[in-house]
Every structure is written in structure tokens, then in C-alpha cells.
Amino acid sequence: MNLKIDDRLNIALLKLIKSLNDGEAWKGTPSALLDKLYEFESSTFLPKGAAALTAKMKGQESSLNANGIYFKMGRDSERYVMVSGKVL
């Protein structure tokens, strides 16, 4: 199967969501999210850095939402990303 990087990102995010308890959201820094996604997909097929990851996610928000992937980015003591299978 020859999937594009965008598809691999969708797959990795869906695998992350499926690993959570129902209704639970994953929250961490963009770098921690990228490290977590590497557990589900090869780093070869994912963005190369945290900034690239968040830019890709922002650019694909409507597509990600259509696939049941919801996220929120913000800042408290540090930048964070929340990812969930439910609207945040």
C-alpha cells in the first residue's frame, strides 16, 4: 500500500485515539505528540518535527474532523495539543 504522508498522519492519529479510553483526550506538547505517533507509524511517513506536525494538522483540520479526529492547540505553562475522537 502506497499511502501519502497525509494518510499516514490520519492513520497514526486514529490509532492514538483508539488507544485511549472512550471519550478520553490525549494532551501533551507537540513534540510529545510526535513521539507518541511514532509508536503507531514509522517516522519515515510522519512530519519531521513538531512545528511541521502542528502546521500539517492545522492545514488538514476539516479533513481530520471528517475522519473523527478532533484537536485543540493552546498554551498554559507550555504549548499543548489535545487530540480526541470527540469534539473538544
Number of helices: 4
What are the segments in which pLDDT stays under 50 over at least 5 consecutive residues?
Answer: none
In helices, the fraction of residues equals 40-55%
The end-to-end distance, rounded to whole angstroms, is 32 Å
Nearest-integer average pLDDT:
92
| Strand order of the biggest β-sheet | 1-3-2
Oligomer: single chain
**Main β-sheet description:** 3 strands, antiparallel
Shape: globular
What key attributes describe this structure?
single chain, 88 residues, alpha+beta, 3-stranded antiparallel β-sheet, 4 helices, 3 strands, 45% helix
Structure summary:
With 88 residues, this protein is α+β, with helices and mostly antiparallel strands.
Describe the 3D structure.
The protein has helices at 5-19, 30-38, 50-59, 61-66; strands at residues 25-28, 70-75, 79-84. The protein is an alpha+beta fold and 88 residues long. The chain has a 3-stranded antiparallel β-sheet with strand order 1-3-2. The model has no long low-confidence stretch (mean pLDDT 92).
Question: Secondary-structure blueprint of this entry?
Answer:
Blueprint: H1 5-19, E1 25-28, H2 30-38, H3 50-59, H4 61-66, E2 70-75, E3 79-84
Antiparallel strand pairs: 1-3, 2-3
Helix pairs in contact: 2-3
